[in-house]
């Protein structure tokens, strides 16, 4: 009765949406707008750089976009599920090194055995020439990618399972120790190229006309490939965040006990979010390694893991767009050498500044400050809207 | 058959026995209250039933199914929901989203399906939203749906938490001191809502200090003192139970004859 009355009043005031279809279209437009803007920005950047005759900048931009994937994954586990990981550099390295080893290691001496023939027939192993023109038998990039994902899945599960059954910062400690171990293993093992890392990683033909490669002829293509990958990922994670699973993760972040009491299997959800985010980091590692043709032990250092955390924090932790933007920009500046030999120190200082001055990242307070003279806060508007 | 049967539950923290061999039953459709002075073990008992704490020994059965040792999310799936002494909403979310979280155990889409919006997932999402809205409507909170949970008054948080617990479709609702911190008018509304919840077929078990509300609302009362059951029965019996009165008013319990004797002798 009261509701019907309310509705009538609303209609009289004109607040009730009378044209359902146009309202729906508006909603769809609002949803798609940021993604369209992101795609436009990618295109504009490429055309701008071409016009300025500085298309070579796209190489570092492509690398930054791959790094951004790691930070976006970290945003899911830190910003939404509220769990700190200091081991994402290691997962990136696990992905990259698995792909690099399998696609450069010569399996020729197994070449005559029956299973090797089978693997060749299934395109798991491929014969090719190495840098010096010697014929070698290596894993195909696609198979190496699958192997990298499986290895990451197993390792992330092993690290995350015990650490995430407990409440508190156990994941941060476990991943920090794990990252240091991975770094030592990489530097100390001949198979992983020790301090030199692995070079001569072949290009990866994803599809006809789509190849992950650092060749300058394919620079634009690879830039759009990385951009497209980031865009697709943002769409998928946005869907996730605005769903039952996304709400469950945020509930765990806010109040773990209450989340459990609302029927959420907190340990399982934290673990799944962590494993998913580790897989994203490893995926970025695989693409990055094929793109740059190699990987070195610096990718597995604790500095890199801290850098990813700093980038996630600078983007506002729980904001996919902020994290993507800040991470791409800052990594690009770093790759262009703007921070010189203070590179790692800059990101450390950034983390300290954000934690002490703007825990929600600089973008949100900046946005509020910019809008202040024009509008009331979003909270006020929502409350007023709710009361109307 | 009883809806909930608690049998010989015991739990100690270090040397302190918080709950000692407590047994009781809740009948379907009842409003049952657990009362007792501070530190009597009421909240510990609640935490054990809802799976947040493990009992050292004893059994809990819901509709004759053993649920002791279940994790909190399994308890919710089995049909028991709870609220907390301090309303613990998810403050980063809106009121509606908070209640939508309550639908978690009755819905099924997981990571992959939600990422890809597989056929069926958007429909479920709409269903979650609608049922959460109807829960808010039921408790008269529809106007707050879009408000951020952090911006609510204490009383509103209580009611939203109640809506969130109801969204899990419980058979049994555990309310931990629902009236504490509410003003008299809010208390009256709360009592009314609890009755309406019972009319919907939800059994209610509550811990409460407000005696007026307890006596007014409950069909049955369980009295705990120092972790043990000292009385159980309908409000009228409990009110006149001398042991209960002593526990609440303090002092030694003396049988009625002795009191009468003391009164007579003092006249002499």
Structure description:
The complex is a heterodimer of chains A (388) and B (268). By secondary structure, chain A is mainly alpha-helical. Chain A has one domain. Chain A contains 16 helices and four strands. Chain A has helices spanning 2-13, 20-51, 57-80, 88-104, 114-121, 141-164, 170-188, 219-241, 244-254, 256-261, 266-292, 302-314, 320-335, 343-357, 363-371, 378-387; strands spanning 125-129, 135-139, 204-207, 210-212. In chain A, the strands form two sheets. A two-stranded antiparallel sheet of chain A has the order 1-2. In chain A, strand 3 and strand 4 form a beta hairpin. In chain A, helix 3 packs antiparallel against helix 11 (266-292), helix 3 (57-80) packs across helix 12 (302-314) and helix 12 packs across helix 14 (343-357). Chain A is globular, with a radius of gyration of 24 Å. Residues 1-19 of chain A have low confidence and may be disordered. Chain B has one domain (4-267): P-loop containing nucleotide triphosphate hydrolases (Rossmann fold, 3-Layer(aba) Sandwich), CATH 3.40.50.300. Chain B has helices spanning 42-49, 72-78, 95-101, 111-116, 121-138, 154-166, 184-199, 211-217, 235-239, 242-249, 256-267, and strands at residues 4-13, 16-26, 31-35, 57-62, 65-66, 80-82, 172-176, 203-207, 220-225, 228-233. In chain B, the strands form two sheets. Chain B has a six-stranded mixed sheet with strand order 6-7-8-3-9-10, sandwiched between helices. In chain B, a hairpin with a 2-residue loop joins strand 9 (220-225) and strand 10 (228-233). In chain B, helix 5 (121-138) crosses helix 6 (154-166). Chain B starts with a strand and ends with a helix. The interface between A and B is large, with 34 and 51 residues.
Entry summary:
Chain A is built from 16 helices and 4 strands. Chain A is mainly alpha-helical and 388 residues long.
User: Cα-atom Rg of chain A, whole angstroms?
Assistant: 24 Å
How are the strands ordered across the major sheet of chain B? Answer: 6-7-8-3-9-10
Report the strand count of chain B.
Answer: 10
Instruction: Sketch the topology of chain B as an H/E string, one letter per element.
Output: EEEHEEHEHHHHEHEHEEHHH
Report, as a whole number of angstroms, the end-to-end distance of chain A.
17 Å
What general outline of chain B do the C-alpha atoms trace? globular
- What is the chains' assembly state? heterodimer
Tell me the radius of gyration of chain B: 21 Å
Largest sheet of chain A: 2 strands, antiparallel
Q: How many helix segments of chain A?
A: 16
Strand runs of chain A, count: 4
Strand content of chain A: under 5%
Low-confidence stretches of chain A: 1-19
Question: CATH homologous superfamily of chain B - what is it?
Answer: P-loop containing nucleotide triphosphate hydrolases
What is the CATH C-level name of chain B? Answer: Alpha Beta
Task: Summarize the largest interface: chains and residue counts.
Answer: A-B, 34 and 51 residues
Largest sheet of chain B: 6 strands, mixed
Strand order, largest beta sheet of chain A = 1-2
CATH topology of chain B: Rossmann fold
The tally of structural domains of chain B comes to 1
